Amino acid sequence: MNVMIVGVGGQGTLLASRILGNTVIDLGYDVKVSEVHGMSQRGGSVCTYVKFGEKVYSPIIDEGEADIILAFEVLEAYRALPFLKKGGKMIVNDQKINPMPVITGAATYPENILEKLAAVADVTSLDALALAEKAGSAKAVNVVLLGVLAKNTDIPKEAWLRAVEGTVPPKFLEVNLRAFSLGYELA
Amino acid sequence: MKKLLLGNAAVARGAYEAGVRFVSSYPGTPSTEITEEMAKFPAEEVFVEWAPNEKVAAEAAIGASIGGGRAMSCCKHVGLNVMADPIFTDSYIGVGGGLCFCVADDPGMHSSQNEQDSRHYARAAKIPMLEPADSAECKDFTKLAFSLSEEYDTPFFIRLSTRISHSQSMVELEEREDAPLKDYEKNIPKHVMMPAMAIKRHVVVEERTEKLKAFAESSPLNEIIDNGSDVGVVAAGIAYQYAVEALGDRVNYLKLGMVYPLPDRKLADFAASCKKVYVIEELDPFIESHMRALGLSVIGKEVFTLLGEYTPSMIRAAVFGEEKREHALPEEALPARPPVLCPGCPHRGTFYVLKKLGLTVSGDIGCYTLGAVAPLASVDTTICMGASISAAHGMAKVRGQEFNKKLVSVIGDSTFMHSGITGLSDIVYNKGANTVIILDNSITGMTGHQDNPTTGKTIRGEATKQVDLILLCKALGIQHVSVVDPFDLAAFEKAVKEEVAREEVSVIIAQRPCALLKSVKYTGHCEINDNCRRCKLCMKLGCPAISVDGDGKVHIDTSLCNGCGLCVSVCPFHAIEKKED
Known about the structure:
The structure holds two protein chains of two kinds.
Chain A: E1 2-8, H1 13-25, E2 30-34, E3 45-53, E4 66-71, H2 74-80, E5 84-93, H3 100-103, H4 113-120, E6 122-126, H5 128-135, H6 141-151, H7 157-167, H8 173-186
Parallel strand pairs in A: 1-4, 4-5, 5-6
Antiparallel strand pairs in A: 1-3, 2-3
Helix pairs in contact in A: 1-6, 1-7, 5-6, 5-8, 6-8
Chain B: E1 2-6, H1 7-17, E2 22-25, H2 32-38, E3 47-50, H3 54-66, E4 71-76, H4 77-93, E5 99-105, H5 119-125, E6 129-130, H6 135-152, E7 156-161, H7 162-165, E8 167-172, H8 188-191, H9 195-218, E9 222-225, E10 231-236, H10 237-247, E11 252-256, E12 258-260, H11 264-272, E13 276-280, H12 286-293, H13 312-320, H14 346-356, E14 360-362, E15 379-381, H15 387-399, H16 401-404, E16 407-412, H17 413-429, E17 435-440, H18 469-475, E18 480-484, H19 489-501, E19 506-511, E20 525-528, E21 546-548, E22 554-556, H20 566-570, E23 576-579
Parallel strand pairs in B: 2-3, 2-4, 4-5, 5-7, 6-7, 10-11, 10-13, 14-15, 14-16, 16-17, 17-19, 18-19
Antiparallel strand pairs in B: 1-8, 6-12, 9-11, 20-23, 21-22
C-alpha cells in the first residue's frame, strides 16, 4: 500500500508519516517512510511517502501509484493528483494557504480545486483545522487527518492509537488522541 | 530488536555498535541527523560535537583515530569539499582506531547549491567507499567500515544520498561492540607527512588499493543476483532500489555495496554473462566510465539523465520502453510553492531594509539565502559557505569604492564561524572597506537548529563558552562593530546607511533570534484596520501571512501570523494592529 502525504512546510506532515510508519510496522509489514528535511521545509511544498507491504524497495511513490493521498492543503492536493492511482482515494484538508507567487500577484490560486478533484478522483474533504482547534490545538491538524485515513484502511484502530502514543510527546498526547478520534468519527 | 530507523539514524547506530568513541561534524542537509542521533548515546561512551566547519571536524576525527579511538566525521557533499584537505593526506597516514567519513549527496538538490557526485573523491583521495541501499545496510556497512578501516589501515567513506539518509526502513539493533582504545605510538614515518615520509606512504597507498580491489572481488558487498535473464543491471545505493522496483526479476543484477575500488573481474564476468548491460546510477557516470575503460560494452547516460533524481518509472521506460502508470493531471498550470522565510523570521527585517536601500547583497548559505526570493529579491549572489565576505571583497576591488558604498555581505552566525572569519581578515589585511552584516539569529537555522560556537551550548545542550562576535571582529582589526535589531527598521536602516558610506571596513551584527526557537515567544496576531489605504507596502515584506484579494483588499491569515509585529512598523498609516489572543 502506498500513501502519499502532501502539504506546506510546517504543517506537521513529517510527524503524520512517522505515526503511520510506526502503525504499520506494528502489524509486521515491511515499510519505508521517505521524509523531507532542510530548505524545502521552510513554507514550501512538502511531500512524504509511506509504503508498506511484503517487501518494499523504492522509498518513493511514482506517478499513478499512490493508493491514498493525504493532503494538508488544497493546492498541494491538486499538485499531487498525478501521483494518485486510478481508483485511488484523496483525503483533503480544505485549508488554503497562498504560495508566495500568489501573494506577490505573479500567479493566481486555482479556483474550485475540490470540484475539479472530485470529477476525476474519490475525494473526502474536511475542515481539519476546525477539528484540531476543537481538540485543543491547531497544530493537531496532522493527527485529525490521520484519524480520517485510519477509517479508510483495514488497519485496526488500536494499532493507530499505539503508534500515536509511541510517537507524540506525552504532554501533547491527550490533545492528539482527541484529534485522532474527531477525524476517525468523521469519516 | 527491530526498529524503523532513518538511514542517518542507522549510520549512527552502526557507528555506536562498532564502538565509536569520537564524532565531530558540521551540520548539512541531508547528513545532519547522523551526528544528532550520535548525541543521543551516552556521553561516557562517545564524545560527540559540532565543529565550526567540516575541515576542523575531519581533522579532529583524524586526531582521535591516531589517538587510538574509533572516530567518525559526517558531512553533506559540499561539506566534503571543505573536508578535502585533511582527508587526502590522511589517506596516506591511515588510521589508529577505525575511521569513517560519512558523506551524503543531494541528487535533485532538495537543500543544496549544487549536485556534485562525491564518489569522485573516493578515487581522487584513494579512500575506499561503501554505499548502502537502505537503513539496514546503513547500519551494517558503517559497522563493517570501522573494522575494514583497521584491517586495511585506511579511512573509509560511507556514501549516502538524500533518499537513503531521509528514508526510514527496518533495522535489527545489536549490542555495542567492545573496541578498546588502541595504544598510541609515536610513529614519525607514518604520521608526519613531509616529502621524504609521504613518498614512502604513497607506495603503501597504491599497494593498499590493490589489496582492496582483491577484497572487492570476493566480498559479498558486491553481489550478483541471477534471475536467468540476458539483461543485466549494475547499480548501487538508492538507484539499485529503484531498479528492483522497476524491473523486478526480469533482469539480473550486480549490486555494488562498494563503489571504490570497483571489482574489475566481477564487472567483466557479469557483463560477459549478459547480452545487454545497463549501468543505473544517479548523477555522474562513475561506474559506467570505469566499465567502459575496462573495454566493456554498457548502456548508461545515453538513456539515463545526468540531472536530478531517478524514479522507477524512468527506469522502466528506459529499459523496457514501458509507459508510466495511468494517472490524471490538473487542468491548469499550478502556481509553484517555493520555500519562504518563516513568519516572524528576523531576516525579513534585514532584507526589507537592504532592498529599500537598493544595495547589492553578497549572500551566503543558510535560511537567509531565501532573501533572493521575490518580493524581497534582495540577495545578488550565493556561492558557498563564507563566500559572502570574500566574494564581496573581490567585487569591491574590481568595481571601486563608489560601488562598494552600495555593497554589503550577509552571513549567518554559524556560517561566519564556519568560513567567514578568514574572509574578513582578508578584507582588513588587504585594505578593503566592505560592510559585513552578520545575521545573528542565535542558532544554525536551515539544518534544523544546531548549536554553534556563538550559541553558548554544546550539541548535548550543556552550557559552554560563547564566542563574542564583537570582540572577535575587533581582534581582526575592525574598528566599527555595531549591534542592531533588524526588527527596529529605523535603527537598522540608519546603521546600514552609515556603515556603507564609511570608507573603512565595518561589521553590523543584526541580532534577533530565530522565530522557531523554543525560547522565542511571540504572542497574538496582527490585524488590518480601517486605516488601510491599500498601498501594499506591507506586501514588500514577503510575509506568508499577508496577502491581497482580488479586490485589492489586504488580509492577514491569523493561522499563519505569529504576531511578530514587523508589519505594524512598516505601515505608514497605522493600519496594522497587534492583537493579543
